[in-house]
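Standup notes, protein team

Yesterday: finished cleaning the Pedobacter ginsenosidimutans set.
Today: UDP-N-acetylmuramoylalanine--D-glutamate ligase structure.
Blockers: none.

Input for UDP-N-acetylmuramoylalanine--D-glutamate ligase:
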Amino acid sequence: MSTNNSTSSNTTSAMTGHGRVVILGAGESGVGAAKLAQAKGFDVFVSDYGVITDKYKAALEKLSIPFESEKHSEELILNANEVIKSPGIPPTAPIIKKLVEKRIPVISEIEFAKRYTNAKTICITGSNGKSTTSLLTYHILKNAGLNVGLAGNIGQSFAAQVATEDYEYYVLEISSFMLDDMFAFKADIAVLLNITPDHLDRYDYKLENYAASKMRIVQNQTAEDVFIYCADDEESLKAISLIKPVAKAFPFSITEKVELGAYLEETTIHILTEPNNQLTMSISDLALQGKHNIYNSMASGIVSKVLELRNETIRESMGNFKNIEHRLEHVAKISGIDFINDSKATNVNSTWYALESMTSDVVLIMGGVDKGNDYNMLKDLVKSKVKAIVCLGKDNKRIHDAFEDDVEVIVNTFSADEAAQIAFHLAKRGDTVLLSPACASFDLFKNYEDRGNQFKAAVREL
C-alpha cells in the first residue's frame, strides 16, 4: 500500500542537504522532521490541513520555519524535492495523489531521520501490544546502562532526537501507516507481535493488504539482522510464509517449545538466543500480568538477550516495569467497584485482551469510530463476563446489532461523564467498569488520551 512509486533520484540529491523539503502535518513527527531538515541545511516548509496547536506553532516560529495551517497550498508543496508526511494522512488524500503523479518522493519521518544516525534500531510493530513492548524494551535497555532513545509512535519524535541527541540505540514503535512510507529503512532488530484486523478502512478492507504493510518491518534486512515474531499468531505465520525473511529468526510461543527464541513451560518462561545461554523467569514475577503480556515480555526478553544483556538485569527490569497510561490502567475503587481505563484499546483485539484478563463481572464502556470492526471474536467473552454495555460514541448501531442477544442492557451515551455515571449505576460491589472502546476516538474526543483523561476525571467526580 505504498504512496510512493517514484524513482529515488530526488531522494539522493536531498540527502546532500540541498533542495526543498516539504513536511505535511505539524504534529510531533512533522515538527521533529522540520527541526532535523533545517539542521541538515534544507529549505523547509511545513503544511497542515488541520489546525496547528499552539505548542507546535511556537516550536516552528522559534526556529523561523515557514508554515501554513488549515490548507495545503499546491504552489508551495508541489515544488518539493521530497515530502515527509504524517502517518495520519492517507494515500487517497488529494495532495498525496498529486505528489505521486509528479513523481515527488513521499516518505515518513522515520525514513528521513534514519539517514542521519548510525544508531542500532529495534523496531516493534503489531496490531496490539506495540506501546507496552516498546516501553518495556526501552526500560530494560536503559536499566542495563545502554545509551538508548525511545521514539516512533510514542514519545518525542525520532527526527527531533536525531537532530539533538547522540543515542547508540533507538527503540522505535512503528505503525503500519509509518511502514507504508518507509523504503530504504532497515531495522537491525525487527519485532512483529501479531497481526489482527485493524485500520482496515485504510487497506481497502482487506486483511492481506494490512498484513503486507506490517511485513515491511523486515524489508532490507540481511542475514546479520534479527527478526522476532509470535509463532502462535496465524496471520503472522501466513504473512511470513509469503515474504520469507532472511534475518536470524527468533520465534516466541506459549503453546510449544522452540529451540531458539522464547517459550512457556507450565509457569516458567525460557528465553534463549544461543543454545547454552538461557534466561528463565516465573510468570508470577512479571510486572505485566495476563496472557497477552507474557507475549510482550517474551518479545522484549529476546531483544535483551540478542543484545547480550545480563540475565539479572533483564529479570529485575521485567519485574519492576510500570505499564503505560490508558492501557488497563486502574483509576479508582468506588463503593467496591473497580474502574479501569483501557482507552488505548482502539481495536477489537485489544478489547478482547482486556476482557480476557478480567476476573469479575464487567460493565463495558465501548464505541467510537468503527474502523470496519468484526465484533464476533468478542461474543463469547461478552456472554461470559459482561453484564451491560455502555456505548460511548455518535453511532452505536453496529454494537447494538452485534451484542443485543448477548447482554440484557445496552445504553447509548455521548460524553465520558454520562458514560461513567451510567456505568456506576449499572455496576454493583465487586464488579469492574472497564473502558475498552474497540474503536477510534475521533467522533467525540481529540484522541484516545483525551478520551482516557476525560473518563478518569469523570470517575473521580463520582
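Follow-up from PR in the comments: Confidence is low (pLDDT under 50) at residues 1-14.
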